[in-house]
Automatic annotation (TrEMBL):
This is SRA1/Sec31 domain-containing protein. Residues 25-34, 43-62 have a biased composition (Low complexity). One of its GO terms (biological process) is endoplasmic reticulum organization. One of its GO terms (cellular component) is COPII vesicle coat. One of its GO terms (molecular function) is structural molecule activity. The keyword tRNA processing does not apply. Keywords: Repeat, Transport, WD repeat. PANTHER family: SEC31-RELATED PROTEIN, SECRETORY 31, ISOFORM D. Residues 1-89 are annotated as: Disordered. The keyword Protein biosynthesis does not apply.
Length: 308
């Protein structure tokens, strides 16, 4: 038996008609196929802490009752834009070179001025030598220092050695023939090369004798023994140089002065000669001047530890 009440679980529709025995079976089927009526539900805003993408509709809300917080991104204010939304388009900076449609507004580097035409001033303004000729090198402009930093090949001759010895105390005005004549006057029948080699050998022998004496063993430490051995090695290199033909008269004259200072205990004369040799030894023929350290150390050992 059919009931005239509403279907189970629903409400009668707005256009629903009560079923009567007179209704045909077709009309009853059409009435049952009509949608059921549901009461309208009001949209509620989600909590503030919840996240909903822009333009989405929360569950249970109708697209006709969208709240202002879930408005379309095209109508949302910038202050309430979604963090997933891309930033608004901005105008590119003007004045960047290399961009299409852009023109550079920054000025390029200033053009370099012409090079200075004056010479290099090695002296302060007001110095008598401040006004130097143009188109000259530094060595040619400074009086007394011409060629002071030339390469060894440029000062291998006697002129370079004379210029180097001229700026050393005790080396100014050295005349090799006069030094050789003084040697023959003090020590007749002495040849310059043989005299230098003999005096260097005798000085080192006296130092070794003093080092071997029992009274001097306390002063000669193992470090001093190594210094004596190194001095002997450097002295042998100098003797080999003297045996050759590449030694200039100026260098030989200073070696004679040094040897006479050792023999006569004239330490100031020997020191001045060693200083002149140190300046003039920066040539390839003197093997980098390694023997200069040897003669200086020989003089110090002679002055401190030699016996009479």
């Amino acid at each position: 038996m059919q009931s005239n009440g509403p279907p189970y679980g629903g409400y009668p529709g707005a256009n629903a008609m009560p079923q009567t025995p007179m209704m045909s079976q077709q009309q009853q089927q059409q009435q049952q196929q009509q949608p059921l009526y549901h009461p309208a539900q009001h949209a509620t805003s989600p909590p503030a802490a919840s996240y909903s993408p822009a333009g989405s509709i929360p569950p249970g809300a109708s697209h006709l009752h969208t709240s202002p917080m879930h408005a379309s991104p095209m109508h949302a204010s910038p202050m309430h834009a979604s963090p997933m939304q891309a930033p608004p388009m901005q105008a590119p900076p003007m004045g960047l070179p290399g961009m299409p449609g852009m023109t550079a507004t920054t000025a390029g580097p200033a053009a370099l001025g012409p090079p200075p035409t004056g010479g290099y001033a090695a002296y302060p303004e007001g110095h008598p030598s401040h006004q130097l000729p143009r188109n000259v090198t530094y060595q040619q402009s400074v009086r007394g220092l011409s060629g002071w930093n030339d390469p060894p090949s440029a000062i291998a001759g006697g002129a370079g050695l004379k210029a180097a010895a001229a700026v050393v105390p005790g080396g100014r005005g050295i005349d090799p023939p006069a030094v050789f004549a003084q040697l023959r006057k003090r020590y007749p029948d002495q040849e310059p090369r043989g005299f230098v080699m003999r005096e260097l050998h005798d000085a080192l022998a006296r130092i070794k004798e003093a080092a071997a004496a029992p009274a001097s063993r306390e002063r000669f430490t193992p470090q001093m023994d190594r210094q004596i051995a190194d001095t002997e090695r450097r002295q042998e290199a100098l003797i080999d140089i003297l045996a050759g033909e590449g030694v200039t008269d100026l260098c030989l004259a200073n070696l004679v002065r040094f040897a006479m200072g050792l023999r006569e205990r004239q330490w100031d004369e020997a020191q001045q000669a060693a200083t002149a040799l140190a300046v003039g030894s920066q040539t390839s023929q003197f093997e980098g001047g390694q023997w200069i350290v040897g003669i200086k150390r020989l003089m110090e050992l002679m002055r401190t530890y030699s016996t009479s």
